[in-house]
Amino acid sequence: MSKNRNSRRSFIANTAATTGLIAASSFAPTRFAIGATSKIKVGILLPYSGTYAMLGNSITNAMKMRIEQAGGRMGGRLVEYVALDSEMSVPKAPQNTNKLIKKEKVNFLVGPVHSGIAAAMAKIMGQRKSPIMIVPNAGSNAVTGPLCAPNIFRTSFSNWQPAFPGGVLMGKEGHKTCVTISWKYGAGIQMMDAGRNGFMTKGGKSIKDILLPFPNVEFQAHLSEIAALKPDCVFAFFSGGGAIKFLKDYEAAGLKNKIPLYGPGFLTEGIEKAAGSAAEGIKTTLHYASNLDNPENHKFRTNYKTAFNTDPNVFSVQGYDTGSLLLQASAAVGGDVESVVDVIEAMETSRVPDSPRGPWSMSKAHNPIQNIYLRQVEGGQQKFLGVAAKDLADPAAGCKMT
Ligand code: PHB
């Protein structure tokens, strides 16, 4: 390791907890001083249309809010955003990714929401040393597993993390059989597997796994089948617009009070009010609950509501923490974000002590080590019931960081 890198390392250690201008002004290598006037470019590839539009907007709003709160600068430099609608299209993902990397020449690439797009992007990123990609939602296990790479970080979760404790919960609540139901793509399949495996640790068994094409919302025939199978409970992953439709159809089919629904918290997240009575009472597991009692969460919720006239959700928290990570790492290198190796080093040692979800840290595979909470929808809010899994790290099977 070079002398320069060593001294940078100790600099990072000293400033890792700070963000903003103090760190920036105390460190300005000559090479960087030349480019210091240029803006830092943040490329964004998120869904702004279709079933996940609410997720993309929540992430974008909160990330920008966080950076705005720091004066709109990262490491002393102004920030410019270039956002593309992913349209949740896996075939378009390589073209969109390359557009942001090669044409827009972004320093950071923030995205996506969808696991299939995440895997496509990770394959491109893994062939390159820069830019640095930050995944603010998509849970694809592979992205911090076999496809992990030094320049890929995640501020959200792996699909396994919130789903496995959801399956354990069903067993703890005394259920013996379940039906699992989801969309047939990376996230749906991985969360279904994790939920089923969690349930099995408590002696539970899935009697039928139902997969629908993404983002299909024709649930009727499947709900009739569930009614006929009479499992003790149902484990489901849907999210955004599709989750609203599923919850409403489940209630309308008369199943809500007969066969309890469980799942990773996305099933009810951010749609509590839109789903109304169809979401009330549902218990899920996730890395956030609206009423977590920490000062950052109170501040975050008030600021978000004031800025956007709507309540934040886990997706906004992930966007907010993406902003925090960008600020922290940019400050640690004194704004010299072109020094990608040093930014990576700063991100690897980052702690996000001031997250609304509670403190979390970055695993060796670049995925959050975080609490998973048990929550229940009550009066249109996610109420915290307890910690389902403390400091849960993804197993990161197959990740070899080179
Ligand atoms: C994903 O595709 O990884 C995904 C999408 C929506 C969610 C969670 C995960 O709410």
What do you see in this structure?
The chain has 14 helices and 15 strands. It is α/β, with parallel strands linked by helices. The chain folds into two domains: 234 residues, Response regulator (Rossmann fold, 3-Layer(aba) Sandwich), CATH 3.40.50; 127 residues, Response regulator (Rossmann fold, 3-Layer(aba) Sandwich). α4 runs parallel beside α13. The longest helix is centred in the last third of the chain and has 19 residues. It starts with a helix and ends in a 10-residue tail after the last strand. The chain binds P-hydroxybenzoic acid. P-hydroxybenzoic acid (PHB) binds next to loops.
* CATH architecture descriptor name of the largest domain: 3-Layer(aba) Sandwich
CATH 4th-level superfamily of the largest domain = Response regulator
Rounded radius of gyration (Å): 21 Å
**Number of E-type strands:** 15
The number of helical elements comes to 14
Query: Strand pairing plus helix content: what structural class?
Result: alpha/beta
- How many separate domains? 2
In terms of per-residue confidence, which ranges show pLDDT below 50 for 5 or more consecutive residues? 1-30
CATH class of the largest domain: Alpha Beta
Using the coordinates shown, work out and report the CATH topology of the largest domain: Rossmann fold
User: How much β-strand is present in the residues?
Assistant: 15-25%
Give a short account of the largest sheet.
6 strands, mixed
Shape: globular
Strand order of the largest sheet: 2-3-1-4-5-6
Distance between the termini: 15 Å
**SSE succession:** HHHEHEEHEHEEHEHEHEHEHEHHHEEEE
